[in-house]
């Protein structure tokens, strides 16, 4: 199974074609928009979408997409966590996806910062779910220039590990510095790299894991998005290989 996490920076009618070229099975796509009903290409997918900021003029969504033999179905939303889209994936294996797009403080109550949004997902939502879980998306963290943000992100990673979830990047790269493979180039600039897009998977899924992170030249310099995709290949226990 191939999981992709990508902040496509809107323009989804065009950017979906780049996503499809990655041959994804399940994708968590942030800052996306609804499919154009006239797009024949979208007939191959099932999708669950949620408007990230439910205010006039905002069109950016969180989306979870699946291609056959996988399907995705909606799950009840957490009304007080607008940054979260839970969905159920069924197919050769069944699991829950927690799609996250951490929002700017101006769009959330009480000014909750980026890292605290993921903290709340891990503390309040994850313990209520039975079975395998994938948490993925644009967490907008860690922002290393903010010690508090970096600490909170590290605490979330530790809590995820306590629930049996590990970073796909760490599982594939070991102790490598994530900034060697950035996922965001702030203001579209190569000299402003961050690694803020993540895929967390069950530890028992990590055997034989493959991971690829998109490059600046292919994804950002070409103006597809200021983010690049994180592409994770998995051999799930108990599924046909």
From TrEMBL:
Domain of life, per lineage: Bacteria
Residues in Endonuclease/exonuclease/phosphatase domain copies: 6-227
One Pfam entry name: Exo_endo_phos
Alphabetized UniProt keyword annotations: Endonuclease, Hydrolase, Nuclease
InterPro entries named among the record's database cross-references: Endo/exonu/phosph_ase_sf (IPR036691), Endo/exonuclease/phosphatase (IPR005135)
A single MF term (Gene Ontology): endonuclease activity
Protein name: Endonuclease/exonuclease/phosphatase family protein
